[in-house]
Amino acid sequence: MIRPYANRMPGVTGFMLALLLALPSAVQAEMDRWEIDQEHFAVGFLVDHIGFARVLGMFLRAEGHFLYNPETMEIGGGEWIIHTDSVFTNHPERDEHLRGSDFLDVERYPRMVFVPQIWEATGDGQGRLHGTLELLGQIRPVTLDARVNRIGRYPFPLGGLFSRPQVLGASVRGTINRSDWGMTYGLSRGLVGDEIDLILEFEAQRR
Questions:
Q1: What tens digit of pLDDT does each residue of 126-163 get?
Q2: 51 contact partners, CB below 8 Å, separation of at least 6
Q3: N or C: which end of the chain has fewer CB within 10 A?
Q4: Does residue 186 sit in the same domain as residue 84?
Q5: Are residues 53 and 155 in the same domain?
Q6: DSSP one-letter code for 91
Q7: Is pLDDT above 60 for 12?
C-alpha cells in the first residue's frame, strides 16, 4: 500500500503541504509588474514661503515600478525612486540651497524612495496607498491618496512599431511634515513651512 506523500514528510500535514505549494504560484500569478514611464512621471511639491505664498517645485528625474493586480486592486511591493539633485523651483539660487545640507543634502542622500505596500480601496478606482518613504537616510511610514484614472491599451505604439502596451494611469496626492525626517531649516523663524504637499502623476506599462 502506498501512503500519501504528505504522510511521508515529518511534521507536514496534507493541508500545510497544499498551502505551501499553492501560495507562491498564486501570488506570482496574481501580480503584474508595472514599469513607470519616465517620460510620463511628474513629481511635484508645494511648501509655504514666509506665509506670503506657496512655492511650487518639481523633481525632474524619477523612475519606478510596482506589482499590482487590477482585479483585486492589491499592491505587491515595488519602489519609486526620486533623484534629489533634480529638484527644480525655477530659481537657481534657491535650487542650490535645496540641494545643500539645510534641506535635501543630495551629496549624502542622492535618492528619495517610496515603497508602496498596501492599497486600501475607498471607492471606484480610489483609495489610500500605504507605504514607506526614505528621505535623508530615514525610513518612515506614509499614506497617500491615490486614484487609478484608467487602465487599458495605449492608443498608439510605445517602444516599438507595433507595441501598444497595457497602461495604468494614476494621480497621487499626500502631505508629509519634513521635520519628521529631520529637515528643520527655517521652521523656528517661520521662513519655510513644515508641511509638504506631494503631487504625483504617472503612467505605467505592464510588463
A1: 999 999 999 999 999 999 999 999 999 988 877 665 67
A2: 190
A3: N
A4: yes
A5: yes
A6: -
A7: no
Reference 175, options 153, 200, 156, 204; nearest CA is 200
CATH number at residue 178: 2.40.128.110
> Which whole-number Å values give the CA distances from 39 to 35, 81, 152, 199, in the listed order?
12, 14, 18, 16
Co-location of 18 and 106 in the same domain: no
Residues 11 and 60 grouped into a single domain: no
Find all residues with CB under 8 Å of 99, minimum gap 6, and list them: 84, 85, 87, 106
Could you tell me the three cell numbers for 84?
534629489
In angstroms, the CA 135 to CA 116 distance is: 15
pTM exceeding the 0.90 threshold for the entire prediction: no
Is-contact 71 29, C-beta < 8 A?
no
Residue 8 lies in domain: 1-29
Confidence of residue 24 (pLDDT cuts 50, 70, 90): very low
CA gap 12, 10 in Å, rounded: 6
Strand partners for 39: none
Whether residue 136 sits in one domain with residue 104? yes
